[in-house]
Amino acid sequence: MGLLSDVQEGLTEAFNDDLSDVVIPFSFVVITGESAYNSTTDSYDKVEELGLSRGIFDVINNRLVDGINIKIKDEMVIVNGPDLPAAPFVEPLIDMEIELANTKRYKIVDPGKIMGGDSNVIIYNMQVRKSGDGIKQ
Questions:
Q1: Are 52 and 26 spatial neighbours (Cβ–Cβ below 8 Å)?
Q2: Is the CB of residue 77 less than 8 Å from the CB of residue 126?
């Protein structure tokens, strides 16, 4: 066992036991191009669900809010690397989002990769923003 697997196993254990009351399940989705009309975002979205995951939502420290890259309503989501069905990314024409059971969506603004000793991601500390809060104009 290396450091990478030890950290991921420890986080998985914590998500299942000690932190289970604050861990929130979500769907990991990609929105590409235009397809069905979405009255919430007032746009035509094509949604592809990549799979289920889970994470811990947290607020961002007010000292980090600059109003441009980090907005006051942005949040952080801590996700164990192996819990994601695909690596999150940010791209101009494709929105990666997480969707909660109550259909609330958050766009991934910054994947926040925390790397291990090699090129593997141990944890994602993703910066997310509620869809509709300055995301789609």
A1: yes
A2: yes
Q: Please report, to the nearest 10 degrees, the dihedral formed by the alpha carbons of residues 116, 55, 27, 84 taken in order.
A: 20
Contact between residue 9 and residue 2 where contact means Cβ atoms under 8 Å apart: no
Q: Which residue has the higher pLDDT, 97 or 133?
A: 97
| pLDDT(44) > 70 | no
Average pLDDT over residues 10-36: 85
84, amino acid identity: L
Determine the straight-line distance between the first and last CA of the chain, rounded to whole angstroms. Answer: 48
Cα–Cα dist 113/123, whole Å:
6
For residues 25 and 53, the answer to whether their CB atoms sit within 8 Å is: yes
Angle (nearest 5°) at CA 8 between 7 and 12: 120
pLDDT single digits (tens) 50-75: 788 999 999 998 999 998 899 999 99
Q: How far apart are CA 63 and CA 118, in angstroms?
A: 31
Q: Are 124 and 112 in contact (CB under 8 A)?
A: yes
